[in-house]
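User: what does the whole thing look like in 3D?
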Amino acid sequence: MPVTVRIPTPLQRLTGGNSEVACNAANISELLEALEKEHPGLRERLTEGGKVRRFINIYLNGEDIRTLGAETTALKDGDTVAIIAAIAGGSGRVTSFF
Amino acid sequence: MSAPVLRIAGPDLEIILEHCRRELPNEACGILGGRDGRVGSVHPVKSASPSPSRFVMDPKGQFRALEEVSRAGLELLGIYHSHPGGPAEPSGIDLEEAFWPATTLPNYPGAFQVIVSLREPAAPVVKGYVPVAGAFVEAPVIIDHRPFPAD
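Assistant: Here's the predicted 3D structure for the full assembly of 249 residues, as structure tokens:
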């Protein structure tokens, strides 16, 4: 049973509109390679210099891979990997209140 | 197609405002679940590195909040955050972070951005926006006193 990968909406045009794809890989790095083979263009949108981009969170069964082994995090059959855009922003202004 | 409007019950808006005030002087952030433009649930999320001028949702908290919305049978209807010292208008940072880099594709299509200005904490200003083609378009936020509809 392969790994199930959840694809963020802006990248689903690279997966034929699918929100989930199946993949065989032993770790996150291999998964990113396998995704690129099946869906060209995905890896460059997800990584920079071999590392997952700052604004992207990848979760293995709900755990942020940055708190596991990052790109070396091991995968097993039946795992679910979710690729989700980080939510961030801010006013960019600093005002003293106190 | 009618213009998007965000409808929220008074008590739900109060949860957001209370969260934003509690986090002062730092920015607060969270997720709104709902459907058909009606907010059905509010999910405050911790900022990974609290700051008066920036927020980044704690990755685990963000995931948990999105799962809660999904488990409740709702959709991600919106994302809220505060501007403690700025207007209730999207900043350049808000714009940059809401779209996939080098594209005009919103990271969360259709999700409202709700910005709470706390320049005057006792008189907060709340405004809504929707991401469209690389920009934000203002969308009204309306207090709705009707109960949230069941499935």
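In plain terms: The first strand of chain B starts at residue 6 and ends at 8. The radius of gyration of chain B is 14 Å.
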